[in-house]
Backbone:
């Protein structure tokens, strides 16, 4: 039995609401992925092939995985997550077989999204790699070419090093869309801060605008750490000040964010 793909965490209920900033990027992703999955016949009618692959590239922690999960969730597609490094290490010698299994599973459970995290580790330039790398890239190419336009399977690859992807994979019919997911600016950071403090009881003295201005260089993952650290600081503070404190009343204050800012670096 093929069994589940390398790792198959569910898309985890992630929605577009969980993504801060990245409005334009998200629009592009939706345009590229939602329509082919929800209404593949539109493309057939127009006599064009729907896109099969999208490459999301940018620094770590900027939301590439988040976007892939959100799209899968919003279009009700099966989300199959595959770690690139795992394919070459854990399934060493059986990497191609593993890839075939993953695509077979994707076809069976279509509509589906196959998400390759750190795809550069399995799709590096063939010239640079050894025999094994060459075979894996070759297998991935042929599996993507083999995806029938009517089979609503879309492959999303994420990478921090788009230049190291084999050019053959970046041609039409394969990963023919590339969307850059960059480091957020101040407005983006503000939105991400809002996402991560949405369910947090904030004290009145917390100024999210000010936090956005003070977190230059932070990506989404850093902001996630920052808000978590601030909340934990609030908890520690409350217990230190009053061992009988009702934890249900604890609020996260500006001072808690100050401590967190001192502890979390981008
Ligand atoms: P990597 O290349 O390391 O896999 P990535 O770009 O896939 O990074 P994610 O895994 O999507 O990054 O993000 C990690 C965590 O950071 C998310 O679970 C989320 O909590 C937070 N995060 C990142 N970007 C955003 C964002 N734009 N809005 C809200 N949260 C974000």
Residues:
């Amino acid at each position: 039995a093929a069994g589940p793909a390398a790792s198959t965490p569910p898309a985890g209920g992630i929605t577009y609401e969980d993504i801060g900033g990245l409005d334009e990027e998200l629009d592009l992703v939706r345009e590229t992925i939602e329509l082919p999955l929800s209404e593949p016949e539109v493309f057939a009618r127009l006599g064009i092939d729907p896109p099969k692959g999208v490459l999301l590239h940018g620094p770590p922690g900027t939301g590439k995985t988040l976007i892939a999960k959100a799209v899968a969730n919003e279009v009700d597609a099966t989300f199959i997550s595959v770690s690139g490094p795992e394919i070459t290490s854990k399934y060493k010698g059986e990497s191609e077989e593993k890839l075939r299994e993953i695509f077979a599973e994707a076809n069976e459970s279509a509509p589906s999204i196959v998400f390759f995290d750190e795809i550069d580790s399995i799709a590096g330039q063939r010239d640079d790699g050894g025999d094994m790398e060459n075979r894996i890239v070759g297998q991935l190419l042929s599996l993507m070419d083999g995806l029938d336009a009517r089979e609503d399977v879309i492959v999303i690859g994420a990478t921090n090093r788009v230049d190291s992807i084999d050019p053959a994979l970046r041609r039409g019919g394969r990963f023919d869309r590339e969307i850059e997911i960059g480091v957020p600016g101040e407005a983006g950071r503000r939105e991400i801060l809002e996402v991560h403090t949405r369910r947090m009881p904030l004290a009145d003295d917390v100024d999210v605008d000010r936090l956005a201005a003070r977190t230059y260089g932070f990506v989404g993952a850093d902001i996630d750490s920052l808000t978590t650290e601030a909340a934990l600081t609030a908890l520690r503070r409350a217990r230190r000040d009053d061992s009988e404190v009702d934890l249900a009343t604890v609020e996260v204050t500006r001072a808690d964010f100050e401590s967190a800012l001192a502890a979390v670096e981008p």
Observations:
- The pocket of adenosine-5'-triphosphate is lined by residues 19-22, 60-66, 117, 158, 160, 192, 195, 220-221, 224 (CB under 6 Å).
- The first strand starts at residue 53 and ends at 57.
- Residues 220-241 form the longest helix (22 residues).
- Strands lie at 53-57, 78-83, 112-117, 153-159, 175-180.
